[in-house]
Amino acid sequence: MGFWDAVTDLIDAATPWATVEAEAPADIPAETAPASESTEETTAETKAEESAPAAEEPEEEAEEEEEEEDEDEIVDPKETLEEECRNSKECAPAKHHYDECAARVTGAGADSKEDCVEEFFHLVHCATQCAAPKLWNALK
Fold first, then answer.
1. Is the separation of the CB atoms in 99 and 87 below 8 Å?
2. What is the largest CA-CA distance in the chain?
3. d(CA 132, CA 139)
4. How far is Cα 76 from Cα 86, in angstroms, rounded to an integer?
5. pLDDT tens, position by position, for the chain (140 residues)?
6. Contact (Cβ atoms closer than 8 angstroms) between residue 126 and residue 94
7. Residue 84 has what DSSP assignment?
């Protein structure tokens, strides 16, 4: 045994990701007549078991859908108030600049290095400042 063989043996022993090989299944002696009958019985049982869960799945899905319908969708008042403010007269200048920029960038195609981040932040800031007092009144 050489030096490199010892090193590779140590590496193989230390690595947890070493190749794992499955063992071959043990040879089971087959009985002629009883084995064929038992296989037929097990196949019938297996088919019955497979069909039973399939019948339960639609019922479970229907129950889940009913639960989802029972739950009321909670709408965040902040989002609705900010949307109203974005479309209000108070934020009209910021919205106009953002829409103008968006049209310019989409019209220029992929060659444009311009983005509308600054205009977007101005619009969001305006909508947030407009919605904040209304939100506190709605939450109180």
1. no
2. 89
3. 11
4. 16
5. 688 888 888 877 777 665 666 666 667 665 544 544 444 555 555 555 555 554 455 666 666 666 666 667 788 888 999 999 999 999 999 999 999 999 998 887 777 788 899 999 999 999 999 999 998 888 87
6. yes
7. H
**Six token digits for residue 26:** 């043990």
Q: Which long-range contacts (CB under 8 A, 24 or more apart) does 11-18 make?
A: none
How many Cα atoms occupy the beta-carbon half-sphere of 30 within 13 Å? 7
Element spanning 138, H or E = helix 117-139
Considering the entire predicted model, what is its pTM? 0.47
Cα separation, 49 vs 70, in Å, equals 33
First-to-last alpha carbon distance for the chain, in angstroms, is 82
Name the residue among 81, 95, 65, 94 with its Cα closest to residue 128: 81
